[in-house]
C-alpha cells in the first residue's frame, strides 16, 4: 500500500516518514531525559541534590500575595533511605516502631540557608551538675530534668574543650506511666552555607556523631561539579 | 491575635488517645475541635477527617468564621473523602493492607502520629520564633512533618495533599489543592 501511495504522492510519504522518525527521536530524547538524574541546586550554594535524594516542597511563594511572604528556606529538602544509612552506620536501627505500624528511620533532612555566624555559638551553663545525660549518649545533655510530654527540651552537646553548644531538642513521646522515650531533632548541623536538621529516635542517639559525619560526606558528594551520587 | 500554643489539655487528649486505642477516634476529634478555636490552619482538615459525623462538621462550619473556613461544608466534606482515600491507598501501597476495620485502626494510628508531630512542630515554632506569628505554621513546616511521618510509614510522599495520582504534577496539585491546608498559613519559614 505504501508503494502505491508513494507512486501517487511521494511528498506525502516523505512527510510521513519524517514525521515517524521525528516522533521516534522525540521519544528517545524523552526516555533519556527521564532516566537522567536531575541535579537540583540549592539556590545560592554549590550543592546539587541528586534526584533520588531530593524532596521537592513545591511551596507557593508570591511576593505580591499578602498571605505568603518570601522564605529564607529552599524549595528542596533531602532524604536518605534507612537502608543506606544502616549500610554506612554500624548498628543503625532501621525500624523503631512500638505501635504495630513501622517507624522507619529514613533520614529526612530539612535544609535552609545557614545563619551568617560561621560556627554554632557556645552556650553558657552555670551549673553543669544540673544537666541530665541523655539516654544512650555520653556527650548530650537535657536541660530539663523531667521533660513534659511532647514538649521539645533543649539538648546541649559537650565539646572537646568542655564548652557546651546547642545540639537540638528532644521530646518525650512515651505516654504517662511509661518509661521515657525520646524523639529528637538535630539542629545546627552547619555544612558550608547550609543548615541541616533531621529527626533522630532515641534508639539511634548513640550514633549521632556518625550520622552527622555521614550527612557531611553525602553533601561532599553532592557538590554541583561532581554530583555523581545519583 | 489568637494564642496558637498547644494547651496542656490538648496534650493530654493525645497522650490518652495514644494509650487507649479504643478511644482514639473520639479523642482525635476533640483535639482538632479544640485547635479550631485557636484558628490552627491544620485543624480544618484534621477535624474534617476525624469528626464522628458529617452533621457535626456541617454545624461547626456553619457556626465558624468564614475567613477561617474559606470554603463551605461541601468542600471540606470532599476533602475528608479525598484525604481518607489517600491515606488508605498510601497505607496499602506501603504494604499495610487490611480489612475495613484494620484500615480504620491504621488511619487512626497515623492520626496520632501526625497529631504528635503537629504538637512538637507548633511548640518548636513558638520557642524558636519561626515566622511572624508564634505557633502558626507555614506550608513548608506542615508539608515537612507530613513527609516525615509518611516516610516513617513507608508511604510514598505523593499521597500527602492533592490527589493520590503520582502522574499529576505537583504544581497542578498545588494549584488545585494548595489552599486546602494553608490559605491562611504563616507565610514565612
Strand content of chain B: under 5%
Uncertain segments of chain A are 32-38, 61-71
How many DSSP helices of chain B?
Answer: 9
Following the backbone from N to C, one meets helices and strands of chain B in this order, namely HHHHHHHHH
What is the H/E order of chain A? HHEEEEHEEEEEEEH
- Fraction of residues of chain A in helices? 10-25%
Low-confidence spans of chain B: 162-168, 174-185
Task: Report the sheet with the most strands of chain A, covering strand number, pairing sense and barrel closure.
Answer: 9 strands, antiparallel
Oligomer: heterodimer
User: Radius of gyration of chain B, Cα only, in angstroms?
Assistant: 16 Å
**Terminal residue distance of chain A:** 49 Å
Widest β-sheet, arrangement of strands of chain A: 3-4-5-11-10-9-8-7-6
Largest sheet of chain B: none
User: Structural class of chain A, please?
Assistant: alpha+beta
Helix content of chain B: 55-70%
Total number of beta strands of chain A = 11
Count up the helices of chain A. Answer: 4
Amino acid at each position: 500500500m505504501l508503494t502505491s501511495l508513494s507512486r501517487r504522492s511521494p511528498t506525502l510519504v516523505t512527510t510521513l516518514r519524517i514525521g515517524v522518525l521525528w516522533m521516534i527521536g522525540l521519544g528517545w530524547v524523552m526516555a533519556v531525559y527521564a532516566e537522567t538524574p536531575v541535579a537540583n541546586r540549592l539556590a545560592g550554594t554549590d550543592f546539587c541534590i541528586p534526584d533520588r535524594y531530593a524532596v521537592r516542597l513545591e511551596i507557593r511563594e508570591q511576593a505580591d500575595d499578602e498571605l505568603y511572604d518570601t522564605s529564607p528556606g529552599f524549595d528542596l529538602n533531602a532524604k536518605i533511605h534507612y537502608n543506606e544509612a544502616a549500610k554506612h552506620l554500624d548498628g543503625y536501627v532501621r525500624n523503631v516502631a512500638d505501635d504495630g505500624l513501622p517507624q522507619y528511620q529514613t533520614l529526612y533532612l530539612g535544609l535552609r540557608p545557614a545563619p551568617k555566624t560561621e560556627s554554632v555559638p557556645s552556650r553558657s551553663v552555670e551549673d553543669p551538675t544540673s544537666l541530665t545525660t541523655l539516654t544512650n549518649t555520653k556527650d548530650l545533655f537535657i536541660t530539663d530534668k523531667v521533660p513534659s510530654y511532647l514538649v521539645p527540651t533543649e539538648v546541649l552537646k559537650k565539646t572537646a574543650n568542655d564548652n557546651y553548644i546547642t545540639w537540638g531538642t528532644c521530646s518525650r513521646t512515651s505516654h504517662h506511666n511509661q518509661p521515657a522515650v525520646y524523639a529528637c531533632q538535630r539542629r545546627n548541623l552547619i555544612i558550608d552555607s547550609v543548615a541541616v536538621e533531621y529527626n533522630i529516635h532515641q534508639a539511634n542517639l548513640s550514633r549521632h556523631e556518625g550520622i552527622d559525619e555521614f550527612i557531611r560526606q553525602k553533601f561532599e558528594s553532592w557538590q554541583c561539579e561532581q554530583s555523581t551520587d545519583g | 491575635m489568637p494564642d496558637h500554643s498547644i494547651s496542656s489539655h490538648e496534650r493530654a487528649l493525645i497522650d490518652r488517645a495514644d494509650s487507649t486505642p479504643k478511644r482514639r477516634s473520639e479523642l482525635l476529634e476533640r483535639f482538632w475541635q479544640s485547635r479550631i478555636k485557636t484558628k490552627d490552619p491544620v485543624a480544618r482538615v484534621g477535624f474534617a477527617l476525624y469528626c464522628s459525623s458529617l452533621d457535626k462538621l456541617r454545624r461547626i462550619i456553619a457556626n465558624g468564621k468564614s475567613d477561617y473556613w474559606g470554603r463551605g461544608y461541601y468542600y471540606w466534606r470532599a476533602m475528608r473523602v479525598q484525604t481518607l482515600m489517600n491515606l488508605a491507598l498510601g497505607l496499602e501501597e506501603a504494604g499495610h493492607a487490611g480489612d475495613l476495620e484494620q484500615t480504620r485502626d491504621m488511619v487512626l494510628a497515623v492520626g496520632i502520629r501526625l497529631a504528635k508531630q503537629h504538637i512538637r512542630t507548633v511548640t518548636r515554632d513558638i520557642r524558636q520564633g519561626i515566622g511572624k506569628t508564634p505557633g502558626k505554621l507555614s506550608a513548608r513546616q506542615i508539608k515537612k512533618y507530613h513527609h516525615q511521618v509518611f516516610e516513617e510509614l513507608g508511604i510514598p510522599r505523593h499521597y500527602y495533599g492533592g490527589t493520590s495520582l503520582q502522574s499529576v504534577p505537583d504544581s497542578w496539585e498545588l494549584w488545585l489543592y494548595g489552599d486546602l491546608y494553608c490559605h491562611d498559613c504563616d507565610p514565612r519559614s
